[in-house]
Design brief:
alpha+beta; 2 domains; 4-stranded antiparallel sheet; globular
Length: about 350
């Protein structure tokens, strides 16, 4: 999730655990601890863009890192707290919960998170929340603001923090229900259209959990399309996109390509744009693809121009967005097809 969401989540949960004993300091410590795994962003200072893709949400987002930091921080804090107002046991669970919440919530995005690094480098992605989901974030941010404006002695602070966290959890559950519905509909539609696929995934489109980007993999490429939870018909148009593996002849031993294949979890295509060989990671969807079936993919990496990839994760998410883009997204969420 985005940085603001982690701060609000950490502050709210910090209030719930230690607010009565530390006041607003519990929120500050919670926000800092919950944000700690994202310290891996400093790797951008020395790593190449392709290596940084796997460094982010790598070891600092692993269960091992979570346990080591929890043990270290809880021990350091108890040594610094001469009055021993809070037990070592409480501090341990405070840091464990904060770091665990960060790792858990990040798993809901498409990026992928290495929970078992360094023992296993498999990345986990639930694909149920867009990295910036205003509905999920707003719940926590509003709760955070209300806690700031309420005096530390206010007896409703704990109830407020509990309510904010409960509503955010319900929203996560709601996103899982939407994904379950869309996945079932997708599998039925693929079967009716006689599309035999190897594997598939669905991921939410930007800023919502109602319209989903769907990808079904076959041997030579992918069938991609969009499905809203509000779609009434059992029809779903697909666009077939070739993987174009032949364009990678001669690139087999390229380090960047190997890193990108690993990062994409095998969901990729390659295309030649003029003199540029472009690697697309399908997991991040298309740039306003609900409005244009042939739109380019949000994540596109220029293989033969590596220096042009410094902003590879940011450049496609909201490229060319305007009022019409939001209107078309809203219409498609409601179940309206293109040009309706």
């Amino acid at each position: 999730m985005d940085f603001i969401t982690h701060i609000a989540l950490g502050a709210t949960s910090g209030e719930l655990i230690l607010g009565k004993k530390l006041g607003n300091r519990a929120m500050i410590l919670g926000a800092a601890a919950n944000s700690l795994p994202d310290i891996d962003v400093i790797a951008t200072l020395w790593l190449s863009p392709d290596d940084n893709l796997l460094a982010h949400r790598g070891f600092t987002h692993s269960i091992l890192f979570m346990l080591l930091v929890t043990l270290l921080f809880s021990r350091v804090v108890i040594l610094l707290d001469r009055q021993k107002t809070i037990s070592h046991y409480t501090w341990f669970w405070f840091f464990l919960l904060q770091l665990g919440l960060h790792l858990f919530v990040d798993g809901f995005n498409a990026y992928g998170i290495g929970w078992f690094i360094p023992f296993n480098d498999v990345r986990f992605s639930f694909h149920t929340l867009f990295v910036v989901d205003p509905f999920y974030s707003l719940i926590l941010v509003v709760t955070f603001i209300l806690l700031i404006v309420h005096p530390t002695q206010n007896r409703h602070r704990i109830k407020l923090a509990t309510l904010g966290l409960l509503i955010s959890c319900l929203y996560l559950g709601y996103s899982l229900i939407n994904k379950y519905v869309v996945n079932n509909e997708l599998k039925n539609i693929l079967r009716k259209q006689n599309i035999s696929y190897n594997r598939y995934f669905t991921t939410p489109t930007p800023l919502n959990t109602w319209l989903w980007f769907a990808v079904a993999e076959v041997d030579s490429g992918y069938y991609v399309g969009y499905r809203s939870v509000f779609d009434k018909t059992e029809e779903m148009p697909f666009t077939f996109i070739k993987r174009n593996e032949h364009l990678l002849v001669g690139w087999e031993n390229d380090h960047s390509l190997q890193q990108l294949k690993k990062f994409s979890q095998g969901y990729y295509t390659v295309e030649l744009q003029s003199d540029t060989l472009v690697f697309n990671d399908l997991r991040f969807g298309q740039i306003t693809g609900w409005n244009n079936a042939n739109a380019r993919f949000s994540f596109h990496y220029y293989l033969n121009y590596p220096k042009e990839n410094l902003l590879v994760m940011q450049r496609g998410r909201f490229a060319n967005w305007n009022k019409q883009t939001l209107e078309s997204l809203t219409a498609r969420i409601r179940g309206c097809k293109q040009n309706e």
